[in-house]
Amino acid sequence: MNHPIELEINGSLHSLCLPSKCTLLHVIREHLHLTGAKEGCGSGECGACTVLVDGLPVRSCLTLASEVQNRKVTTIEGLAQNGQISRVQKAFIDLGAIQCGFCTPGMILTTHSLLESKPQPQEEEIRAALSGNLCRCTGYSKIVAAVKAAAAGSYSVPQRAGNYEVVGKNEPKVDALEKATGAAVYINDIFLPDMLHGKILRSPYPHARLLKIDVSKAQKLAGVKAVITAQDLPEGRFGPFIKDELVLARDKVRYAGEPVAAVAATDPDIAEEALSLIEVQYQPLPAVFDPLEAMKPGAPLIHEDLENYFCIAPVDREGNVCARTLLVQGDVEEGFRQSDVILEETFRTHVHHQSYLEPCGAIAKKEASGRYTVWSNTQGVFITQARISEALHIPMSKIRSISPRVGGGFGGKVETHVQPITLVLADKCGKPVKIILTREEEFLAGRPRHAAVISCKLGVKLDGRIMAKQMWHVYDSGAYSCDGPGVMGFGCLMARGPYRIPHLRIEGHCVYTNKVKSGAFRGFGNPQTSFCSESMMDMAAEKIGMDPVEFRLKNALNPGDKSFGGQVLQSVGINDCLTEASAAIEWNQKKDVGHNAKRRGKGIASINHISGLLAASAIVRINEDGTVTLQVGTVDIGQGADTVLAQVCAEELGVSVGDIALVTSDTDATPFSWATTASRLTYTAGNAVRKAAQDAKNQLLELAARRLGVDKAELELKKKRVHVKCHPAQGIDLPELAAISCWVTGGPIIGKNSFLVEEPAFDRSGFHGFAFGTMTAYIFGAQVAEVEVDVETGQVKVLRGASAHDVGYAVNPQNVEGQIEGGFLQGVGYALFEEMIFDQGRVTNPSFSDYHVPSSADSPPITPIIVEACDATGPFGAKGVGEPGLVGVAPAIANAIYDAIGVRITELPITPEKVLSALKSKRS
What residues contact 709, with CB distance under 8 A and at least 6 apart? Predict the structure, then answer.
């Protein structure tokens, strides 16, 4: 029953008639269409729904609308006064405190309330006040800095001197203002006329035969417009490497949480009720949950038709092993014979969820033309288009894929999630359909990081030279291969680390189990292998009596050395990364061992990664007033790619970032770009944009040369003007030149470029079953951590960290620092407490109350260090940085724990129980 209620929101009175259990968040979003407050968890854990009630922050998802009658409610939309944003909003924009932006409104409102009550808070007070507002992107460092700046009332944005006008500068993110004011549109902020709501029925069993699905009762429920099962879909299989996955389960289910049916209804609650009316008969089957058990003869077979699945490249597969990779260099047995010391150890890592704050979702609509438009929070609009096409047998030309703003991804939104289901429901209903996953569904059916078992054998000389390395990897892919063959293969490629090792044998297996499928997550297999490799580096250094930093420097790559696979490396900054990171934490100073039960230690790890992979393209159009439209098919998920690409374009054309209009994330309106993943956009899309801008610039100079009667070589384009180099007064302003091209001669100037990483190729003579063609633009990094370990409780606290990364050239240093800081904190969570827990294949902690995402209270001081070993093949010498900030954190922490208490933890996460158990074993 509905009841009348009057609410004051942002200074306006609203008379509404609402159910008694209606939440304030529902009123704000669904009735008033104020979308700045977000629903990230639905349980008050993430803080994305924060609003102010009488000046105090509250969780609007837990607050009943009836509770705030006769009280003043302020949302982010009401914070600006007289058209001017607040000092807090401005500080967040200026100081790089905004990445994906999904948490930003809640963060800003909480900060506003804090400064109203305590104008000059201490850092501890800031972190405590913000601890209920989660941010998955930033690492909180820049957020805390922005709060301090807003409190101070005056601040400056640091800038560095350089040879360029735009690149290399701390330009504010081009989308920061809309995110700071709540105007940014995410998938759940889109409301279409007559839109229906979809829900998905999921299997309760990890492995079972599907005997019968009866949807008749659900179809009869008032408000239900469509119910679908696999029988309503073509048998189209999809996947990035092996085409083994179906949109809805057919014949059997392979993990608890697998989609079995879906409904569309006029209301989400009706859709939920309809799910309960679908009757499914299952025949439970034997299941296997450990990848080592799954590899044994006689293990339950998860994919009987594995040999018949289409693969994008030849794959060595058998039984539950869906892919095997072997990488060989030199003669590993000879290398061990030459070694003075040989060490062997086995390490285990766990399932780690991306925990982006914005749940996955999609809206699909069938157009009058018969085409389909699909809006979704995806990391690749073209990948989404392709996967829908292959899954549903619809030509790609019939599918338009669009991405609004994306509230974080970290790899988890690269592949399709609910888009195909949403499209089929929309097609059947003839109306738009929206599906937004719950936080529980994100854990039950997302694509988290692969668990792994990795064994390593390392041979070294007493003088510190590494002679041989042998590794055996097993990656748990879950019920479907997804990115598994690539993750496993890339983990194998990175297994050498940033070192010269003459003899290598690296073997990897990607294995099916009856658990949720795993996928891409920041680092793509490298964090697992680096945990093993970099722990072994410390073990070897101790064995031969050498300092861990010295040991790494002795074996570190230099310019001119070759990668694993024979590529010559010219841009190599690993030595500077090691030196600067260790100096930032006073590595060589006498160690503070701590006191009483709390012991301190320092640890280091160094890593390599790549940023050159696959294709991107760009179009640069010079408008008739001299401004620029940049069309590029990339998706900015918070890392600042839009800003970096605008800077690259602006620098090349002699204009400002404000002169660039970006058109992105739309398969109908932009040229092709592969996904936002693999730390690749700055390098690949940056190259495409720069070359497209150079194409447009060349046309401008040719036109100007004709108009001025001079040779093109005599001209340059700077500050919106083409002029003769030796006679700057002789020239033409860019707006005039652009107008001439549009209206007088030649036609509008359009530059374009398609860029594909093809060279340098791998020497594949020692590569077997490796899924990628080639990679380039190697990134290097070093992470250090100082920890405090309580030997009585087993608790580990990271006191401080430093992270140095060779990024080639920092196009936007503030962005780079934000990526380094955010990656480091995600690495802290990976190392110490983030873990998906399973019981017989079922996830038992599918919420932020049970799955611990780091808050501002968990974030240590982090020193980001930018190392620039210019890569001549990158735009202005730039490489990427998105993933590496996480990769080496876990082994750095593990090494620091060993330094503190003398026990080696070989299994992640490093929980207090594992620390206490290791200490007990050591004492006994």
Answer: none
pLDDT digits (tens, 9 = 90+) for 677-708: 999 999 999 999 999 999 999 999 999 999 99
What is the DSSP secondary-structure string of 522-537?
A: TTTTHHHHHHHHHHHH
3-state secondary structure 661-681: EEEECECCCCCCECCCCCCCH
Q: Which residues of 689-713 are buried (b: 16+ CB within 10 A; e: fewer)?
A: bbbbbebbbebbbebbbebbebeee
What's the rounded Cα separation, in Å, for the pair 847 and 44?
Answer: 11
Taking only the tens place, the pLDDT of each residue in 569-598 is: 999 999 999 999 999 999 999 777 777 899
Q: Residues 6 or more apart from 822 whose CB is under 8 A from it?
A: 99, 136, 137, 138, 139, 885
From residue 615, alpha-carbon distances to 672, 680, 814 in Å are: 8, 10, 26
Provide the 10 A C-beta neighbour count for residue 870.
Answer: 17
Please write the tens of the pLDDT for every residue from 49-79.
999 999 999 999 999 999 999 999 999 999 9
Per-residue model confidence (pLDDT) at position 906: 98
Query: Could you give the CA distance from residue 427 to residue 367 in angstroms, rounded to a whole number?
Result: 10
Amino acid symbol at 443: F
Q: What is the DSSP letter of 716?
A: E
Question: Does this model's pTM top 0.90?
Answer: yes
Distances 232 to 229, 235, 236, 490 between C-alpha atoms, Å: 6, 9, 12, 37
Q: Helices 87-94 and 141-152: crossing angle, nearest 10°?
A: 140
Note the residue count of the chain.
Answer: 924
d(CA 233, CA 421): 9
